[in-house]
Amino acid sequence: MDSSLHSPREPSTSVPTVVTIDGHSWAYWAFVWLGLGSLLPINFFITADQYFRYKLHDPSMPNSTASRLELAYENAVTLSTSLPNLVTTMLVTFVCVPFIHKYRIYTSLSGITICLLICFSLIFVDVHQWREIFFMITMILVMFQGVLSAILLNCFFSLTSTLPSQYIQGFVAGQALGGVFVVICSIASILFSSDISTSAAIYFLLAIFVFLSNIVTYFYLERSHLLQVYSSSVQQINNENEPLLRSTSIDDPTDTIDMTTLALRQRLLVAYKYTKWNFFGVLLTFICTLSLFPAYMSKIQPAHPTTDYPNTIWSERLYAQVMTFLLFNVGDTLGRMISSKVHVPSLLHPRLLFCLSALRFVFIPLFGFCHFPNTNGYPYIFKNDFIYGFIVLSFATSHGYCNSLNMMFAPKRVHAQLSSTVGALMLMALTLGIFLGSVLSYGVVAMYGDAKAPDNEYFQ
């Protein structure tokens, strides 16, 4: 077992032939594209906050003030995604660890596409008279796509963990690129049309196109030479995690349940034993990130008063998109790209990597000094947009770097037969971190300002 720490694991005896079979690396870019689509729904719901705030705005209130539904939107989205995502991940991890099946993938991709189609259809409906119902429908759709995303990610992380490490790195890098793609689509839709509904329609149509292309991409990927080479490993993983009814006596069902539970517990405990520092590294990385992004950071205003800008489209519609969402996703992508070339701390120093992940919590007080509309008297020190942009870029790059390194190193620390279990375990750390960070974001926003006040400014 310890020997795996000093050399890359090889899931099957067919590994040496992969370079020849997949010489053009198209499968790597296929995983990048699948990674781009895997987190696209939550990115779209978060980045499209201007559209949803427009829908949730109370017409009886002045345009400069925000209703409680508007102010609660970002927190509600992250919580509505993270909670069902966490519960589903725990269920698929402890009940059917980890089962890679094409029908799970196709069903999840199709279900998320249907959710986006429903959101697209609601663009053309006037919801001002039933804003609360629209808010509830949106959160139900967010929860539903959270469940499907958890199943989809479980399959993809389990699958990529059985392949050479560059494929899981490509998948993780694709997730970061998905954020960049979403923000660019948002900015383009804003510049294309000044009408928020038209911009949102273009926005959701692009998301639907991506998911349809993901279905086609996986259709060809599962027939590729790469997965054919590793098909024996995948089938072995699936067989190991099936109920053991066939291999035990039918006369004693209690013994069957005990054996199944024992097998699952053994795999998870051994996987956790060798990857616990990477597990908690991913956990802390996402707790820190989600406590600030997007609920707190999306409300940060330009460092200078709005009157300093001749064109209010920058301060009212583009500032948050560029300075917060675009810079964050560019930094996240940059960090994941760096991790493919730079491995510091190395595989042999998981505790140091854990400390680096924990050190990121210093960003919580740093962002507190930026131009957040606080009412709690917290000092506003960084009166320059370049300082804010630098902090965002550093925060995002460290997120992508720590997340990617932990995800890449974890499967290498165990035997090949446990690699898929490790993939599911790391996904559980990711979803648990997202959930805890989403809950913590309420405290961060409350600490720096009373965002629940109905007369706060309306931020776009």
TrEMBL record:
Single GO cellular component term: plasma membrane
Keywords tagged on the record: Membrane, Transmembrane, Transmembrane helix, Transport
Membrane topology classification: Multi-pass membrane protein
Subcellular localization: Membrane
Positions of transmembrane segments: 26-46, 109-127, 133-159, 171-194, 200-221, 277-298, 318-339, 351-374, 386-410, 422-448
Transmembrane helix among keywords: yes
Superkingdom in the source lineage: Eukaryota
Presence of keyword Nucleus: no
InterPro entries attached to this UniProt entry: Eqnu_transpt (IPR002259)
Short name of one Pfam family: Nucleoside_tran
GO molecular function term, any single one: nucleoside transmembrane transporter activity
Family stated for the protein in its record: Belongs to the SLC29A/ENT transporter (TC 2.A.57) family.
Name of the featured protein: Equilibrative nucleoside transporter 1
